[in-house]
Please model this.
Amino acid sequence: MGAAIEEIRKIVTYGVMAPSGDNCQPWAFRLKGDLLEVIDDRTKDTSFYNFRNTASYIAHGALLENLRIASSALGFSMEEAIFPEGEEGLIVASIRFSKAPPKNEPLFPFIDKRCTNRFKYNGAPLTDEARRGLLASINSIAGAELALAEGRAKKIAAKAASQNDRILFEHRGLHDFLFDHIRWSAEEAEATRDGMDIRTLGLDPVQQRLFPLLKSWGILKLLNSVGLSRMVPHQSYMLCSGSSAMGLVQVKGSDPRAFLDGGRAVQRVWLTASMLGLSLQPMTGILFLLNRLYNESDSIGSSYRIMLKRAEALLKEAFSLKPGYTPVMLFRLGIGRTPRVSSLRKAIELKA
Ligand SMILES: Cc1cc2nc3c(=O)[nH]c(=O)nc-3n(C[C@H](O)[C@H](O)[C@H](O)COP(=O)(O)O)c2cc1C
Model:
């Protein structure tokens, strides 16, 4: 027997707790009878980072993994067709849920606890149990690999990740998109239910007061002329090198399906980290910029190409990059204080 509309809605509520770049939530849903279609809403993530829609596919992969875990825990099996109209189409998946005995899904209780923690972590080394748990978390996803960098390798990966921030502060498109997605007050966050609440950015009280000034491209340019954009990578370097480990999820291939699988894997690693009491923050902008460099190098200013090549060399030194695999997510992991503010999600519309 298929799931009723309210049961589908409940499962989707868990689905959309998935992470997405700048909390854009690049999805929409359509119900055809009891068939749920997950649609890629291309109007949502228009960031320069979202090269060839790859950031959105990672978010969709995370959403699909949430749907799979939640439906199984709530007593449904999930039959899915991925890209039923082809990879160019907007339908990411069409899904039918059927009643089945509920299964024990250890990651289910962590779907609504997972969050991006942008605060400083305490740098305690990973325990053997945590390392084993994280590495095993993606065994169910064929073609996905997790690599962890600790000790010296972690510092090298930290250096690679931090290169992103200079470009973030100097690229008008990246700047404008980021600042358009910051919600400056609890009221604004509640009104839009997307984007990032300023209180989730891990800023100290002084930074929180100064940050709104950077919204103005003119002021930022002035500050960059006296060295701001060259200093910001140091801050993310310190955050990454002071974590327990840097992690990299890679997937076989580089087509949209590979990024969906990558998103599924990322979600499993992230939920497992939550289960193990570990915080996680994607530090992944550099991977999207590298993807541009490989595929559309003209869209990257010549002054940044050398910097990106250097970041690529550092990533190769920190992790063993597998031939034929694409790095989809770089992140830091560790023990940090629990953020007090959660990011919100838009209400679910199940259009007929
Ligand atoms: C593809 C992708 C890329 C992301 N990149 C970053 C990043 O570079 N830095 C960061 O702090 N968060 C990053 N995030 C996390 C999102 O900003 C976050 O998931 C979103 O704001 C919702 O918040 P939540 O994860 O706490 O639910 C990324 C998430 C995804 C799915």
